[in-house]
Amino acid sequence: MKPDRRKITDLTILAAALAALVYFNLKSAGAPADSGGFRVITSTTPAMIEEMAYAIRNKRCAAITAWSPHWMNAKLPIKYLKDPEKVFGEAENVHTIVRRGFEADYPEVAKFLRQFKWKPADLDSLSLMSYECGGDFDKAAREWLKRNPELQAAFLKGVRPQPGAKLRMVDIGFYNEIATNRMLKILLEEHLGCEVTNVSTTIPIAFEALANGTQDVMVTVWLPNYHKNEFAKIRDRVTDLGVNLPGATMGIAVPEYAPVESIADLKDHRDEFGGKIIGNEPGQGILLLAEKALEVYGLK
């Protein structure tokens, strides 16, 4: 089937317009006039990462909202600033959440999902490979599985095929999430005989879809803080299969060579950082925490 060139053109135009808007936002927004402080600038995750990469190439300082796991941690020489006031909380755990009744319907799949456990560095490597493959998530997932046979064996240990199982896996479209779900899709389809559909949507829709049973599985729920509010609304209508990735973190990151070690240190280096912390997409919880950090550490 030939690609729809009109759709491709439309997407290209949209991407160019978005990139221009983000570029204007980043370049024109500094700290509030006469404040001598910092402000959080919203952008997109790719634009935020490119700003950091540009700063590093030119030996400049930049501060971004960052989280682990993500391929940026494997690609860029960055460090997370200390947060003694715990504005960003302790380390998060990533949970596997399924709709009610899922375990009874698909016991072998549930067993597989309970055994799906890895570390931030594992996901960092998978998402970096996906990035370096130009977003070919299937190609990256297969190569990652080839390089990590021990993890694949642990995920599948003692799990029997469950042919005919039709699974709907939902995520919110972040690179890490898509990479994870594509890798799991390969294992579920080729080793358990399942039919898997991956859907990306917004946070509220994803959580409500799990609660009302129109989606089956979400393996990227960050608790106890990042998805706290959304999960609280559906807790009694879903099943938590447990933690699949411990030690996820959020915070503010800077180049490794930057002359700061804690968020509070930024106060004495406003000019070097341009008075701004570059954030990701509007509406994300990490941006609210970054705004709070400015207040707590007296950076406004």
Automatic annotation (TrEMBL):
PANTHER family xref list: GLYCINE BETAINE/PROLINE BETAINE TRANSPORT SYSTEM PERMEASE PROTEIN PROW, GLYCINE BETAINE_PROLINE BETAINE TRANSPORT SYSTEM PERMEASE PROTEIN PROW
Q: What would you give as a GO molecular function for this chain, any one?
A: amine transmembrane transporter activity
Keyword RNA-binding included in the entry's annotation: no
Q: Which GO terms describe its biological process?
A: choline transport; glycine betaine transport
What are the protein's UniProt keywords? Cell membrane, Membrane, Transport
Range of residues in the leader sequence: none
Q: Which organism is it from?
A: Victivallis vadensis
- Domain (ABC-type glycine betaine transport system substrate-binding) ranges: 38-146, 167-299
**Main localisation, per the record?**
membrane
For this record, the Gene Ontology CC terms, alphabetical, are:
ATP-binding cassette (ABC) transporter complex
Where, per UniProt, does this protein localize?
Cell membrane
* InterPro entries given in the database record: ABC_Gly_betaine_transp_sub-bd
Provide the taxonomic classification.
Bacteria, Pseudomonadati, Lentisphaerota, Lentisphaeria, Victivallales
- What is the official name of this protein in its record? Glycine betaine/proline transport system substrate-binding protein
